[in-house]
Each structure stands twice: as structure tokens, then as C-alpha cells.
Design brief:
Helix content is 39%, strand content 17%. It is built from seven helices and six strands. The chain is an alpha/beta fold. It has one domain: 3-Layer(aba) Sandwich (Rossmann fold). The protein has helices spanning 16-29, 43-46, 50-56, 77-97, 108-113, 119-128, 144-149, and strands at 6-10, 34-39, 60-64, 102-106, 134-138, 152-155. A six-stranded parallel β-sheet has the order 3-2-4-5-1-6.
Length: 175
């Protein structure tokens, strides 16, 4: 089997991160090396317990550019931007120094959509990734250019969600 394709999970529905975590589980169970990197999430505050499970299963788990200024006004947007650029540099160095079969960049598309990095910087990252590294990127608002570069694109659409009728997010289901 040859790896190296590009996946995008985008859209306004629930399931983008869940899909990427499912793929990580499938890949690690098949003996592939997996690195999962989350952007704009704060596991120490909100849990995101899938990160602990992935780590226990042998997935390298990294959390970069913690939080999002639109959701937490105490977070400086310029700091987030620097952290996203630094994370891409870190990942390029990691890919240059070791083989990774599957790299998941959870919510990286948010970084582009909200202008914490330029789309061109992410496109350059995609162009420079090793040809045998499968790449998954998640987040709402994938651009036409990112979609054009991808081999798989899943648009997850909200048709119905309990939140719309007043149900709060539930631990272990939505977070």
C-alpha cells in the first residue's frame, strides 16, 4: 500500500475531529506511525480526552496554538499566529528527521480561515511534505485552493444537532 494522499474534513457539522481520530485509530492499529497535532484547542481546560487515548495507543500527540481569540478575548491573536507558524516549522523539521505515515493537523484550516497563517504557508507545507506521508487537515471553511490540492474531501454538514434545541455539549460526545 502506498501512502501520501491528502484528506480534508471540513464543514459546519459535528464529526471532523472524530473522523480524524477514527482514522488515527485505524492507522495505528495497522502498524502505521501516527502524529496527531491539534490547533486552537485547550485540553487542560476542556478535556479532549481522545488525545490521552491516542497517546496511550502509541500516537504522538501535540497541542499547538492553544485556544482561539474569538472564544477567549485574553488570548493575543499575534501570539496565536506566531505559535501556528512555529508549529508548521516544527512539523517540517520532524518530517525531515523521521518517517511519519499519517500526520493529522486537527483544526489547521481554522488557522487559515481566521488569518493566523496565510493559505500560501499551508500550501507550501503541503508541497514540502514527504511524498509517503498521508496528511489529514480538519476545520471549518476549507478554501477552494485547499480543496483542489486534496485527494479526499469530506464536507460534514449539520442537518440536525441537539445544541439547536438548547442541549448543552456533553462530555465524551461533543468534547
Amino acid at each position: 500500500m502506498s501512502l501520501g494522499l491528502i484528506h480534508i474534513y471540513t464543514g459546519n457539522g459535528k464529526g471532523k475531529t472524530t473522523s480524524s481520530v477514527g482514522l488515527a485509530t485505524r492507522a495505528i492499529g495497522s502498524g502505521h506511525s501516527v502524529t496527531y497535532v491539534s490547533f486552537h484547542k485547550r485540553p487542560e481546560k476542556f478535556g479532549y480526552h481522545e488525545m490521552g487515548v491516542l497517546s496511550a495507543a502509541g500516537v504522538r500527540v501535540l497541542n499547538r496554538a492553544k485556544g482561539h481569540p474569538h472564544l477567549d478575548k485574553s488570548i493575543d491573536p499575534s501570539t496565536v499566529s506566531k505559535e501556528v507558524y512555529d508549529a508548521l516549522d516544527e512539523l517540517e523539521a520532524l518530517l525531515a528527521s523521521e518517517h511519519i505515515d499519517l500526520l493529522i493537523m486537527d483544526e489547521i484550516i481554522i488557522s487559515v480561515r481566521d488569518s493566523y497563517i496565510t493559505e500560501q504557508r499551508l500550501l507550501d507545507f503541503i508541497d514540502r511534505k514527504p511524498s509517503k506521508t498521508e496528511l489529514v487537515m480538519t476545520g471549518r471553511g476549507a478554501s477552494a485552493e485547499l480543496i483542489a490540492r486534496a485527494d479526499y474531501v469530506s464536507s460534514i454538514t449539520a442537518v440536525k444537532h441537539p445544541y439547536n434545541s438548547g442541549q448543552c455539549s456533553r462530555k465524551g460526545i461533543e468534547f
